[in-house]
Amino acid sequence: MGIMVGEKGAMMAHIDRYAVFGHPINHTKSPRIHQIFAEQTGQALEYTAQDVPAEQFESAVARFFTEGGKGLNCTLPLKELAWNYATNKTERAQLSKAVNTLAVQPDGSVLGDNTDGKGLVTDLLANHKISLSGIRILILGAGGGARGIIAPILEQCPKTLVIANRTVEKAVKLAAEFHGKGFITGCGFEALEYQQFDLILNATSASLSGKLPPLPIGLLATNGSCYDLAYGNELTAFVRWGIENQALKSLDGLGMLVEQAAEAFFIWRGIRPETQAVIELLNSERQNG
Length: 289
Ligand code: NDP
Description:
The chain is α/β, with parallel strands linked by helices. The chain has two domains: 7-114, Rossmann fold; 117-254, Rossmann fold (3-Layer(aba) Sandwich), CATH 3.40.50. Helices cover 36% and strands 24% of the residues. The protein has helices at 30-41, 57-66, 79-85, 91-96, 116-127, 144-154, 168-177, 237-244, 254-269, 276-287; strands spanning 2-5, 11-14, 16-22, 45-51, 71-74, 88-89, 101-104, 110-113, 136-140, 160-164, 184-187, 197-202, 220-228, 250-252. The protein has a six-stranded mixed β-sheet with strand order 4-3-5-7-8-6, with helices on both faces. Helix 7 links the parallel strand 10 and strand 11. The radius of gyration is 19 Å and the shape is globular. The two termini are 35 Å apart. Bound molecules: NADPH dihydro-nicotinamide-adenine-dinucleotide phosphate.
C-alpha cells in the first residue's frame, strides 16, 4: 500500500490493484483466494475479476496497467495472448509459450510467468503425495493449460509423457516442442487404445460442459490416479470417470488453483502465503454447497 497525493494536494491512501481476466469468468474463485492470502499475510490489495474476450484482450490489459494496475492473472482462453503481450518472460513461461501471470516491473516493463505447472506439481507432490518420477503419465488436451504443465512434469523425470488431443496435429506439435527434455510423444485419442498410464491428467476444457474425451477401457493402470485440472462444486465428469475406473485417487484442480495463485502472489508481493488452510476452507465451502 502506498500514499497518493490527490488533485488538491490532500493525502489519499491508494491500494495496489490486481485482477484476473478470462472469458467466461463468472465462476472464478481467484478473487476470494487472493483476498484470503492478503488477509493472511497482512497485505493491502484489491483483486477483481473481469470478463475479457480474446479480441478485447490487448486493449483491456493496456488500460488496466495504464490506470495503475500492478498485476494480472490470465485464464482460458487468454494465456497464449498474454504470452505475446509480456515484454519479458521467465524461463518456464518461455518454454510453455503460455502466460497466466503478468507483473509490472519497476522499469514499467511487463513480466510474463506461468505458475500453472508449479501449482500442479506442488499439489500432486506435497498435498497428495503422488510422485511423478518413473511413472507413465498421460495429458488429455493440448491448449494453454497443457502447455503450462509439461516442462514442470518432465523435470520430475516420468518414464513417459503422452499428450493426446482432439486436434491431433496440435498434440504432435506440442510434444515436439519438448523433445530433448524427456520421453514425450503426441497423438489423438484413438491411439490410446491398448495403452496404460499411472497418472492421467485432464487438461481439456470438456469438463466445463460436463463432457469427456473418448477414453478406452483399461487406460488407467491398477493403482493409477486421475487429476482433472478443471474444478467445480460438483464432481467433474473426468473425476467421476476416475472413480468408475477404480482410480487410487481421483482429484480435481482446486488444489492446483490455490497453489498457482500462491506462486503468483509471491511474484507480485514477495511473500509466500500458506496454502493448506485455504484449500481446506474452499473444499469445506463447496461440500456445504
Ligand atoms: P484451452 O481453450 O486453451 O484448450 C482447451 C483444450 O480442450 C484443447 O486441447 C481442446 O482440444 C480441448 N477440448 C475442448 N473441448 C473438448 C471436447 N469436447 N472433447 C475433447 N477435447 C476438448 O483451455 P486451457 O488449456 O486453458 O484449459 C483447459 C482446462 O484446464 C480448463 O478446464 C481450465 O479451467 C483448466 N485449468 C485449470 C487450472 C487450475 O489452476 N486448476 C489451470 C489451467 C487450466 P482442441 O485443440 O481439439 O480444440
